[in-house]
Design brief:
The chain has 414 residues and is of the alpha/beta class. The longest helix has 20 residues. It binds zinc ion (ZN). The site of zinc ion has 4 residues, from loops.
Length: 414
């Protein structure tokens, strides 16, 4: 399939220019460029916005991401600009520049990159699955950055195979076009492929009909058989209608359990069946996110979510991860720790599609709420004081980490 792509703005760090070949245009892309120092990206946001508006930019392509080097929050930039995004950043600290140059070449080559990624999972021993009676988790991977796919995803697939775990990958069609072999391995190795936008574009603000035709296009390009969608932070009520009308069975919404300064906001990771005009669709909560958190915090989030789910008889919790983050060499050991921890707690890792099959068959415990689209609200934040010894023991450490992250991010104006 040819790489037919929209107008793109590439944001380079000027210090990376000597690593990358001097390119102006690379058909079929229509490229605009800006080069700056990434720590100054928020100071230049007016100028960047000007280019986006003048050139009709639909996707911003970053040369760095917030996992590497100066850790500038490109997610915040994308939210301001309201465009799609990807990145050709390297992901491993010790080979960032080499990986970046490779992904840059892959991006602008104009042809699919015919590789399957190193670290084949074939033949990896799968241990016996734990007793499913003790509950299920779903590991979700947002898959949209080139370095994450080329370098992180094969490592994640190897870990999943080694731990007998199956996961859900929300992938953009763009990374599927550039790396069809690697993205193809997701389904070949027994995992679930789900949609995440053509190029991570915002869905909200468009008509339901327009969104439906986009969603159908995403599914078709993946060869059909898609059950789920992740448009976290970029969807609206029309998106839910459009997903249901396209035959999608579920979408995810954020319900992240994170410590706050003096408390622990608890939210019940409860699934909801939403009635839309053309049928019903499951809203499935994400209770844990590894992004930006230490292993200590991730484990606390997992424990709290499991405890809260367990108290209400819900036998499932979802954990959101990213191959460019959890698959990089700085975090891969923490990822494996999470796998070991979930196994030790007797939890089985299943794709969300399997969770939905159990919900549809009435086999899942915990009961489901049913709501009309107009009345559905993702559950609000309920702040509670520390409830148990773990909460109390964790607060000082979590607070210190919270303050450290704020200091580190203090270049952001908000
Ligand atoms: Zn994403």
């Amino acid at each position: 399939m040819p790489i037919l792509l929209p107008n793109a703005l590439i944001i380079l760090d000027e210090r990376d220019r000597d690593v990358l070949p001097a390119v102006r245009q690379a058909p079929p892309w229509k490229l605009s460029w800006i080069s700056l120092k990434y720590p100054e990206i928020f100071d230049r946001i007016g100028e960047i916005r000007g280019i986006v508006e003048a050139e009709g930019i639909e996707i911003v392509i970053y040369g760095r991401n917030d996992q590497i080097e100066e850790r500038i929050n490109i997610g915040a930039v994308t939210r301001i600009l309201r465009t799609g995004y990807t990145s050709f950043s390297g992901i491993d600290r010790r080979n960032r520049a080499g990986q970046m140059a490779q992904c840059f070449a892959d991006l602008l080559g104009g042809e699919p990159v015919d590789i399957r990624g190193e670290e084949s999972a074939a033949g990896a021993p799968a241990p016996d699955p734990p007793d499913p009676a003790r509950g299920n988790v779903s590991l979700l991977f947002d898959t949209e950055q080139l370095g994450g796919v080329r370098y992180g995803l094969p490592r994640i697939l190897r870990l999943l195979a080694a731990y007998g775990a199956r996961a859900t990958f929300f992938a953009t069609n763009l990374v599927g076009r550039i790396y069809p072999g690697i993205i193809g391995r997701i389904r070949e190795e027994g995992h679930e492929l789900a949609i995440h936008g053509f190029h991570h574009e915002p869905m909200d603000g468009r008509s339901a009909a327009e969104q439906e035709s986009a969603i159908r296009g995403m599914v078709q390009e993946f060869g059909g058989g898609i059950r789920g969608a992740n448009f976290l932070g970029r969807m609206d009520a029309a998106t839910i209608e459009a997903l249901a009308a396209s035959g999608i069975s579920y979408f995810v919404y954020p319900l992240i359990n994170k410590y706050r300064l003096v408390s622990y906001p608890r939210r019940t990771p409860r699934h909801t069946r939403i009635r839309a005009a053309s049928g019903s669709i499951w809203a499935l909560p994400v209770a844990v996110e590894t992004y930006g958190s230490t292993w200590f915090s991730v484990r606390n989030m997992v424990d709290a979510a499991l405890e809260d789910a367990g108290r209400r008889g819900i036998d499932h919790v979802s954990i959101l991860c990213h191959p460019f983050r959890d698959g990089n060499l700085q975090h891969l050991r923490d990822m494996e720790r999470l796998f070991r921890y979930l196994r030790a707690r007797g939890l089985r890792a299943i794709p969300l599609a399997e969770r939905v099959r159990a919900l549809d068959a009435g086999e899942a415990t915990g009961g489901a709420d049913e709501e009309a689209i107009e009345s559905w609200q993702p559950e609000g934040l309920s702040i509670t004081s520390p409830r148990d010894a773990r909460d109390i023991a964790s607060l000082p450490a979590e607070n210190l980490m919270h303050i450290w992250r704020k200091v580190r991010a203090s270049r952001m104006p908000f």
